[in-house]
Amino acid sequence: DQQVKQNSPSLSVQEGRISILNCDYTNSMFDYFLWYKKYPAEGPTFLISISSIKDKNEDGRFTVFLNKSAKHLSLHIVPSQPGDSAVYFCAASRRTGNTGKLIFGQGTTLQVKP
Amino acid sequence: NAGVMQNPRHLVRRRGQEARLRCSPMKGHSHVYWYRQLPEEGLKFMVYLQKENIIDESGMPKERFSAEFPKEGPSILRIQQVVRGDSAAYFCASSPPNPSKNIQYFGAGTRLSVL
């Protein structure tokens, strides 16, 4: 039962262009969403997050959009840089009920070409 | 400003042996989480601990796996009688007490190989 899905295993974009990574979820109880970036042989690094009471959160080159009715979120990276090449994971959680677990998608490998 | 520290980074065990993975959370953090990543998959939640308490172990296999976070010292994930299917990357994460946002900070992971 995959509650968080990233349907694109990989994405390739040109340096300077926009990268759009997508994520879908099924559990309407999720109320907090996060994006992590992961390089090979390293742990995931937190990028940006969004609460379910918002539909957009922006931090520098990174913007996350949330469409609750569609149970869909996306991460936009503008402009993309070669150093952004990594695996990107979306994750979802419920902040109620004292459970801290994050439910991760399978990841999308982003390649930014110079 | 030390982050989450995991050791060892790589661990090789033969089938039937025990594996012990250690995690020291970030300074000031009292919540620890363990996740497992199989090849080509995302991270799967295993267990959530606070000091001396297991809060949520819904992702832990019923047998052979245990976790603790003692009052003093690191959190330990213990796998008894390892099998080949236990080969994976194990990540630990931590968060501060009373987090208003569920942002977890991850260590570099322990890569377990079972021969």
Give a brief rundown of this model.
The complex is a heterodimer of chains A (114) and B (115). With 114 residues, chain A is mostly beta strands. Chain A has strands at 4-5, 10-14, 19-25, 32-38, 45-51, 56-59, 62-67, 72-77, 86-93, 103-104, 108-113.
Percent range for helical residues of chain A? under 10%
Bin the strand percentage of chain B. over 45%
Specify Rg of chain B, calculated over alpha carbons: 13 Å
Number of strand segments of chain A = 11
Which structural class matches the secondary elements of chain B? mainly beta
- The overall strand count of chain B is 11
Detailed description of the structure:
The complex is a heterodimer of chains A (114) and B (115). With 114 residues, chain A is mostly beta strands. Chain A contains no helices and 11 strands. In chain A, strands 2, 4, 5, 9, 10 and 11 form a 6-stranded mixed sheet that branches. Chain A starts with a strand and ends with a strand. Chain B is an all-beta fold. In chain B, the strands form 2 sheets. In chain B, strands 2, 4, 5, 6, 9, 10 and 11 form a 7-stranded mixed sheet that branches. Chain B has a 4-stranded antiparallel sheet with strand order 1-3-8-7, with no helix packed on it. Chain B is globular and about 40 Å long. At the A-B interface, β4, β5 and β10 of A face β4, β5, β9 and β10 of B.
